[in-house]
Automatic annotation (TrEMBL):
<dbReference type="GO" id="GO:0003677">
    <property type="term" value="F:DNA binding"/>
</dbReference>
<dbReference type="GO" id="GO:0005634">
    <property type="term" value="C:nucleus"/>
</dbReference>
<keyword id="KW-0547">Nucleotide-binding</keyword>
<dbReference type="GO" id="GO:0000731">
    <property type="term" value="P:DNA synthesis involved in DNA repair"/>
</dbReference>
<dbReference type="InterPro" id="IPR008921">
    <property type="entry name" value="DNA_pol3_clamp-load_cplx_C"/>
</dbReference>
<dbReference type="InterPro" id="IPR021886">
    <property type="entry name" value="MgsA_C"/>
</dbReference>
<dbReference type="GO" id="GO:0005524">
    <property type="term" value="F:ATP binding"/>
</dbReference>
<protein>
    <submittedName>
        <fullName>WRIP1 ATPase</fullName>
    </submittedName>
</protein>
<dbReference type="GO" id="GO:0017116">
    <property type="term" value="F:single-stranded DNA helicase activity"/>
</dbReference>
<dbReference type="Pfam" id="PF12002">
    <property type="entry name" value="MgsA_C"/>
</dbReference>
<dbReference type="GO" id="GO:0008047">
    <property type="term" value="F:enzyme activator activity"/>
</dbReference>
<dbReference type="InterPro" id="IPR051314">
    <property type="entry name" value="AAA_ATPase_RarA/MGS1/WRNIP1"/>
</dbReference>
<feature type="domain" description="MgsA AAA+ ATPase C-terminal">
    <location>
        <begin position="17"/>
        <end position="167"/>
    </location>
</feature>
<keyword id="KW-0067">ATP-binding</keyword>
<dbReference type="GO" id="GO:0006261">
    <property type="term" value="P:DNA-templated DNA replication"/>
</dbReference>
Amino acid sequence: GEEHYNCTSALHKSMRGSDENASLYWLARMLEGGEDPLYVARRLVRFASEDIGLADPLALTQAVAAYQGCHFIGMPECEVILAQCVVYFARAPKSIEVYRAYSNVKECLRMHTGPLPPVPLHLRNAPTRLMKNLGYGKGYKYNPMYKEPVEQDYLPEELKGTDFFKECET
């Protein structure tokens, strides 16, 4: 019932708050109470990106490995895999930079009125002669061919200068 969601919330917030002891407690409450370990592992995958993000990009690898380990061996053996992951996450630095930026992109899309801006011609793939004749891909600079980063716009003209890591400006 409701306690399922309460314990999930407590685990999430304990890891977010870097409290490894509370994190282990809530994990054990869930597992010993019969929670599906794969449910917990899926929540850890989400947590890795939502709360740790770029502060420790290996957190996502840890979460996916924990999920796979749980899938392979099941309970009760997988409890230590989840415990290791939960402690890792509680101790990990936290960053919601990507989570916020993606939320800003979604908000920008929701607030946009009218048709969405077209993909700039230079960013379009040109697998046919007709598309090449229409200008698809024309002027695109293939970054790996340059020693330095190239000056090139990747957003539609209407969004030029938008920085989703700050806020949606349009």
